[in-house]
Design brief:
The structure holds two protein chains of two kinds. Chain A has two domains: 3-50; 53-293, MetI-like (MetI-like fold). Chain A is built from 13 helices and two strands. Chain A has helices spanning 3-47, 53-57, 70-101, 106-120, 123-137, 144-169, 172-180, 185-196, 198-214, 217-220, 233-239, 247-255, 261-293; strands at 59-61, 66-69. Chain A is flat and about 90 Å long. The termini of chain A are far apart. In chain B, strands 1-2 form a two-stranded antiparallel ribbon. In chain B, helix 4 (70-101) runs parallel beside helix 7. The chains are: A mainly alpha, B mainly alpha. Chains A and B meet through helix 1, helix 3, helix 4, helix 5 and helix 6 of A and helix 2, helix 4, helix 5, helix 6 and helix 7 of B.
């Protein structure tokens, strides 16, 4: 074999390797897309038939012979409202502290560490803790409020993180300008920083709502699984202290102990639509955020 | 400045409220840790550390109850390791595709797909695993164990199903983190590699990926954390008998043990479940600490 042949031999090996690698890379990317398409397709084919107006507006009852998830939808909405009502101000407050007040030191490190740690704890642990602390120690039992209190801890890092990111992008000159005009810190935060960071905060809130909609492990042992609708408008408030299963919990029960796969796939369709809408919403917001930054 | 602060009590109140908000996170982590330890240790005393952690017999409701959770711990470790080993290469190559190979149009298809995979609730993965994977596994099982007299048939609810579901569920996390790590590699490195005559593939695998190593490691560790903590989806596909983690065995993970028995367990059985929670918590905290170490290291490098 002369030198030129050796070179072209090496060259062709390198070529084959390249083609092989490209093939693998494209294959993996294609796999991800096919996986998603398959999941969506299968869920819709199996479940779209179950999703009727009655399915969304009635409660499953053997007596009346109805199958529906209205109770679960109400529970989900109530849990989202309760959770976000508390988690949003606390999460935003924490971000403001971290970004605007804290001086570098032990406390800020500790808060960052705690936030980081919270976001790494899996939901089943939150569920266990919520059951022990809110459910038993505080005596709230299986109820929507126990579930919400548990979820607050879970979504707090999401809101804090997103608000912090948004606050970081507000130019320093805004703050200096406000101070120069004689505004106090709280006044500056209220009138300048928060409005400027609003899309970041809303992104965090929407992401958190998405997480709550998809959550199941943290709710099974805290909010329970009841599916009855509140009987009256006042019942909505007492419902807070009663057990209630969200859509995901209902899906889990339908697919396991109840063995009712039509309902399970019906709920899956509703969940997928919701989750995708939420995803779209955050994207829109992020895009708008970018434009205003430029 | 100081005068102003004194003049306006609103400023002071605002500051203290924000401080309290920030401390909520610290308070939460502390109370979770305290509760997990306080509730998780009594069983260690009552059953004994080694019979509990290293016992292989799980009969909580028997006449003479036995609470060995060794197989459960082992399943969590093996299941997580297998899903990460299988998932990371696919995720890494997808990240390479997104950052180095694909044009704008293809990225516009693959990237949203990754995002949506991350958004799908875990119960839906479980439901699909139950309906699609388990029957497939059952067919495979019948083929593999056709002549076996000792094998207990599981109907397809086995470790493989759980590993596949976990693998899919960790994909988006690893893809996203790796992709941003690869994106952060300075363009000069690639340019230098091309200038030395390296091809695109050589550059990707010998220059870009090694340069993005710590970011990719972060993604892998995040993936490990996700796989360890996932509960509902694998509870639906893994069967649920406490067994050695062999591919075709019906198995219990730390998380699925909690999901399936917490609802009815009482007395010592319940205490043992809290210990299972504590073991999981210790694993997760170790993963968290490693993660923060890697991140700090990455910041130092820069």
């Amino acid at each position: 074999m002369n030198k030129a042949d050796g070179l072209s031999y090496k060259w062709s090996i390198r070529k084959t390797k390249d083609v092989l690698c490209y093939g693998l890379i494209y294959l993996c990317a294609a796999l991800v897309v096919v996986l998603l398409a398959g999941i969506i397709g299968y869920v819709f084919v199996r479940g779209a038939g179950s999703v009727t107006f009655r399915f969304l507006t009635s409660v499953t009852s053997v007596l009346k012979g109805t199958v529906g998830i209205a109770g679960n939808i109400v529970n989900t909405v109530l849990i989202i409202l309760l959770t976000m009502l508390i988690a949003t101000p606390v999460g935003v407050g924490a971000a403001i502290y971290l970004n605007e007040y804290a001086k570098p030191g032990k406390l800020i490190d500790l808060v960052e560490f705690a936030t980081e740690t919270l976001s790494g704890i899996p939901s089943i642990i939150f569920g266990l803790f919520g059951m022990m602390f809110f459910g038993q120690t505080l005596g709230l039992g299986y109820s929507l409020i126990t579930g919400s209190l548990t979820l607050i801890l879970m979504v707090l890092p999401l809101i804090t993180r997103n608000t912090q990111e948004a606050l970081k992008t507000v130019p320093m000159s805004y703050r200096q300008g406000a101070v120069g005009l004689g505004a106090g810190k709280w006044y500056t935060i209220r009138t300048i920083l928060l409005p400027a960071a609003m899309s970041g905060i809303i992104t965090g809130v929407i992401l958190a709502i998405g997480r709550i909609v998809g959550e199941s492990a943290a709710l099974l042992f805290t909010a329970g699984s009841a599916k009855a609708l509140p009987k009256s408008f006042g019942g909505v408030f007492s419902k807070i202290f009663q057990s209630g299963g969200t859509m995901t919990v209902q899906l889990y029960l339908s697919a396991t102990s109840e063995g009712d796969f039509d309902t399970a796939f019906g709920v899956a369709v509703v969940l997928l639509v919701l989750v995708f809408l939420i995803n779209l919403g955050t994207k829109r917001l992020a895009a708008r955020f970018d434009v205003t930054r430029k | 400045m100081k005068n102003k602060a004194q003049k306006k009590p609103a400023e002071k109140i605002a500051e203290s409220i924000f401080t309290v908000c920030a401390i909520v996170a610290i308070f939460a982590v502390c109370s979770i840790t305290v509760y997990m330890i306080a509730k998780g240790t009594p069983a260690l005393r009552n059953v004994g550390v080694s019979p509990l952690l290293f016992g292989t017999s799980w009969k909580p409701t028997a006449q003479d109850p036995q609470y060995g959770i060794f197989y459960i711990i082992l399943t969590s470790i093996v299941g997580t390791a297998a899903s990460v080993l299988l998932g990371v290469p696919v995720a890494l190559l997808t990240a390479v595709f997104l950052t180095e190979v694909a044009g704008k149009k293809l990225v516009g298809i693959v990237y949203p797909a990754v995002e949506l995979l991350a958004a799908i609730p875990s119960v839906i993965y479980g439901l699909l695993g139950l309906m699609l994977l388990n029957p497939l596994m059952y067919k495979l099982e019948k083929m593999v164990f056709a002549d076996s007299a000792t094998h207990q048939f599981t109907g397809g609810s086995n470790l493989i199903s759980a590993v596949i579901v976990l693998e899919i569920m960790i994909l988006p996390t690893v893809v996203n983190v790796s992709a941003s790590a690869i994106r952060a590699v300075p363009e000069e490195l690639r340019a230098a590699s091309f200038a030395l005559g390296a091809g695109k593939i050589q550059t990707i695998f010998k220059v870009t990926i090694p340069a993005a190593k710590s970011g990719i490691m972060t993604g892998v560790v995040l993936g490990i954390g996700r796989a360890l903590g996932e509960a509902m989806a694998i509870n639906m596909v893994a069967g649920g008998s406490v067994n050695l983690p062999l591919p075709f065995n019906s198995v219990r993970f730390l998380t699925t043990q909690l999901v399936s028995e917490m609802g009815y367990a009482e007395g010592l059985h319940r205490q043992v479940l809290f210990t299972v929670g504590l073991v999981l918590y210790v694993f997760i905290m170790s993963v968290n600490l490693i993660l923060q170490k890697i991140r700090k290291g990455a910041v130092m490098d820069e």
